[in-house]
Design a protein that fits this description.
The complex is a heterodimer of chains A (265) and B (332). By secondary structure, chain A is of the alpha/beta class. Chain A has two domains: 214 residues, HUPs (Rossmann fold), CATH 3.40.50.620; 32 residues, no CATH class. Chain A contains six helices and 13 strands. In chain A, the strands form two sheets. A nine-stranded mixed beta sheet of chain A has the order 9-8-7-10-6-1-4-5-11, sandwiched between helices. Chain A has a two-stranded antiparallel sheet with strand order 2-3. In chain A, a hairpin with a 3-residue loop joins strand 7 and strand 8. In chain A, helix 2 crosses helix 5 and helix 3 packs across helix 4. The radius of gyration of chain A is 22 Å and the shape is globular. The N and C termini of chain A lie far apart (56 Å). Chain B has two domains: 185 residues, Rossmann fold (3-Layer(aba) Sandwich); 127 residues, TPP-binding domain (Rossmann fold, 3-Layer(aba) Sandwich), CATH 3.40.50. Chain B has nine helices and 18 strands. Classes of the chains: A alpha/beta (265), B alpha/beta (332). Chains A and B meet through helix 3, helix 4, strand 7, strand 8 and strand 9 of A and helix 3, helix 4, strand 7, strand 9 and strand 10 of B. Strand 9 of chain A pairs antiparallel with strand 13 of chain B.
Chain lengths: 265, 332
């Protein structure tokens, strides 16, 4: 199997701090990591390779330091990596990003499968995976929680939706976006880390992927971020701090009254 | 080319219009009124309930375009994306919005690529800029830490998905009238390289947290798996569903469909109770549209209290038994 995994390097946002004045993220000292949801895509590709043989190529678009993310993916078991990094790619929205990634993927035809994480934790759009499939005109599905069967020309997958699970048969080559329910990403092995360190990671620009210039970067991006603001979070509710049993009892009574007032009970 | 009208992409299941589609009409109506244009509801299916179509009009649409075909019975990415694209190319709407459901978030990105236009995901607010008439799209990003306002100034249609349950449907107005038009599309675009073999309904009833009126969630503060049962007990007493923080899911106290937050599900219940949850930004972003939020946590500094309408700073192992007892007494 030839599997392609597009990944993104993102800021570590689980403990992010925001500048209260500007509403922007304080980037100093913020670590760059592989998008946590991409780890599930990487793990699934490595599992498929272990079972069916083949090779895994990781592709990432970003600044030169995104090479670190590619090396980490290789340390988890991916074979090769390509970094798409060029000033002409800067400022891409999901249309331009999916175009750029799809152009690079065309260079690796024929492939069997593209696996993406559900979405990136910084942009939170989940639009790049389906976008790549649309540019490549290959079948795709999203929210895959299990790959049940790999056949000669198709796969059977389980897709998680609001009310349950769909079992789908999808022709290959295809693109899947996977959810975290699908597996437990492994930690890089010692051997993997050594391999990743030595690996040569090629950097490609617009010419290498034969891209149409007006589809790239900010120029090729229909959407514009016009304002960033800080969400209002505080509701200024009533917060009780009971100090003893009877105060606690009163606090719970207050909660019950609240529920009654709001007609929840 | 001239682009006109606001479109909403409606969804159906077994021919019945879904509630999220009525919610979406509220958003569409607001935008269409501001632009002084028609609101058109698009619906794809095999055989769609006539009363449901009429209700789309009663709840805000000026016109409904229906495409019925056996290959559109349920959502499949290719025939759905191709059909919506062909309608857009025929009528040139100025704005098209869909619910940010698993369907909307799958079909819309493909449609946006086919139309070479911009798409903004999971918006929590939509408006029209007075001077330009452009769609103002607001959405949380970077783990809910910021709100980004996004526009699509030079490309049409302007496309966005809207977070489900972030607003209420309009009350049906039976005096509203509008055309219901059945369109045909070319059979060749309805081919699918995906087949649906089976559908398994989630047996785990209380995991349907997205549509629930009451959600009781537990987090790391519960300390161990056995204690998570207390959350199920309270939820049962309040006829609610059970949610969980990411930590609780990572610890296997609850399964992933229960996970509330940006990496799980967004919920908008009438009542949300967070027990032993500190309230990471990701978690808070997932409950922002809840009507009433109650928090129980022993840490007075826990962020969850910032969004709570009512909070108790105390050991949950002392609060929950008292609460359970009092709720049980009320039930009898």
């Amino acid at each position: 199997m030839k599997i392609i995994v597009p990944i993104k390097q993102v800021p570590e946002t689980s403990n992010v701090s925001m500048d209260p004045e500007t509403g922007t993220m304080i980037r100093d000292g913020v670590e760059s990591i592989i998008n946590p949801l991409d780890l599930y895509a990487i793990e699934e590709s490595v599992k498929l390779k272990e079972e069916h043989g083949g090779e895994i190529l990781v592709i990432s678009m970003g600044p030169s330091k995104a090479e670190m993310a590619i090396r980490e993916a290789i340390s988890m078991g991916c074979d090769d990596g390509i970094l798409l990094s060029n000033k002409e790619f800067a400022g891409s929205d999901t249309l331009a990003t999916s175009y750029t990634l799809s152009q690079s993927i065309k260079k690796f035809n024929p492939y069997d499968l593209i696996i993406c994480g559900e979405r990136a934790t910084d942009g939170d759009t989940g639009q790049v995976g389906p976008g790549i499939a649309a540019w490549l005109d290959i079948p795709f599905t999203t929210y895959v929680s299990k790959i049940k069967e790999v056949n000669e020309n198709s796969m059977i997958v389980q897709r998680m939706v609001e009310t349950g699970y769909e079992i789908l048969e999808i022709e290959t080559p295809c693109l899947l976006t996977v959810v975290k329910e699908i597996n437990y990403p492994r930690l890089p092995s010692m051997r993997g880390k050594l391999l990743a360190k030595k690996k040569e990671i090629k950097t490609w620009g617009p010419d290498d992927i034969e891209a149409k210039r007006d589809y790239l970067g900010l120029e090729g991006s229909p959407t514009r971020v016009v304002k960033i603001s800080k969400p209002k979070v505080s509701r200024g509710g009533e917060i009780l701090m009971p100090k003893n049993e009877s105060e606690l009892d009163k606090a719970v009574d207050g909660l019950i009254e609240y529920l009654q007032k709001k007609e929840i009970i | 080319m001239s682009y006109k009208d606001v479109w909403v992409l409606s969804e159906q299941e077994d021919g019945k219009i879904k509630l999220v589609s009525y919610e979406l009409l509220t958003r569409g109506r607001f935008l269409a009124d501001k632009r002084n244009v028609k609101l058109v509801a698009i619906i794809l299916g095999k055989s769609i309930d006539k009363e449901g179509l009429q209700e789309l009009i009663y709840r805000g649409a000026d016109k409904v375009i229906v495409i019925e075909d056996t290959s559109l019975e349920y959502f499949l990415p290719e025939p759905y994306a191709n059909t919506v694209t062909s309608l857009i190319q025929k009528y040139n709407p100025e704005i098209i919005i869909a619910s940010a459901t698993t369907t909307g978030r799958t079909v819309m990105p493909a449609v946006a690529i086919k139309c070479i236009t911009g798409l903004t995901a999971d918006c929590t607010d939509l408006d029209i800029e007075e001077e330009t008439g452009n769609l103002i799209q607001t959405r949380p990003a970077i783990g809910g830490n910021i709100l980004a306002t996004i526009m699509t100034p030079k490309y049409r249609p302007q496309m966005a998905t809207v977070r489900p349950h972030s607003n209420k449907p309009l009350v049906p107005d039976n005096s509203r009238t509008g055309d219901i038009i059945y369109e045909k599309v070319d059979k060749s675009i309805l081919k699918s390289r995906i087949k649906k073999l089976e559908f398994k309904i989630n047996q785990d009833e209380d995991a349907n947290i997205q549509d629930a009126d009451v959600v009781i969630s537990g987090g790391k503060g519960l300390k161990k798996e056995d204690n998570f049962q207390m959350i199920h007990d309270i939820a049962a007493l309040l006829d609610g569903s059970v949610g969980a923080s990411r930590e609780a899911v990572d610890l296997k106290w609850a399964t992933y469909p229960h996970q509330v937050g940006l990496s799980g599900k967004t919920v908008s219940p009438k009542f949300y109770m967070a027990v032993g949850i500190s309230g990471s930004v990701q978690h808070l972003a997932g409950i922002k549209t809840a009507e009433n939020i109650v928090a129980i946590n022993s840490d007075p500094e826990a962020q969850i209290f910032q969004v709570a309408d009512y909070g108790i700073v105390a050991d949950l192992f002392e609060v929950l038994p008292v609460l359970t007892k009092k709720l049980e007494a009320l039930k009898q």
